[in-house]
Amino acid sequence: MGNLTFSISGKNANSTRLDIKARQFKFIADEDASFGGLDEGPNPLEYLLAGYASCLNVVAHLVAKERNINLRGLEITITGNDLNPAKVMGQPTADRTGFQSLDVQFEVDSDADQETLDSWITEVRGRCPVGDNLANPTPIKISVNQLIEAN
Amino acid sequence: MGNLTFSISGKNANSTRLDIKARQFKFIADEDASFGGLDEGPNPLEYLLAGYASCLNVVAHLVAKERNINLRGLEITITGNDLNPAKVMGQPTADRTGFQSLDVQFEVDSDADQETLDSWITEVRGRCPVGDNLANPTPIKISVNQLIEAN
Hints:
2 copies of one chain form a homodimer. The first copy, chain A, is of the alpha+beta class. Chain A has 3 helices and 6 strands, in the order E-E-E-H-E-E-H-H-E.
């Protein structure tokens, strides 16, 4: 398998709502009233956390299979902590603008003992692409152009 | 406005599909056949990119309003580049496991000139929480416990 590339695109419906396409899938991101939106979909930070949870789910099952860990069920809760909205709002702050940390909680239905589960989670964590992009710096290039529409 | 915390939770439907709840919203993440899934929803990496695009949309409109930039419309495309799946698959590699870089392309319908747009995007980039969590290291704590169900 060669290197992988994924793309999504989004079109603004208003100043908070983005209508997103990822291949054949269409979904909506929005803000609630506290950020001036109509709450018509999960917010951007919730999608970020959902991306991480779903990545962990896939890798968790992959590594469990490799290690013959019996995994009957799995629930993942992720909390993004201490986002200081000052910088978003253009106010002075020494804080970063994103979450200051993330907490991930796995609840598993399995016969494995705690030591086995801890070792499994350590490997899952290290092999999860989304977790890597969150835990470690990722170079980002942004460009802006005038929209030229054919229609 | 005090510091903000957001949480999501997900329950595995099978080894690739996660059924996610974020407040009142329910949505599905899955993998396509190349990763053993049924392609019943966007994949984890697409949600990650969608979270970033939708965050940029909100901050872009906020900063445009502050700067009196007329923004009639906006399209954002984000591409995650060069994800080497070796590490996910448990094979040796010197590459990181996530995207090696991200490219963001804004297409805007606006009267503003290119210099104005470039300056605007620089500020948008620096104030977007999701972008901060991707561009800079974020501490992550993971715990695992046996699921104890009441029902």
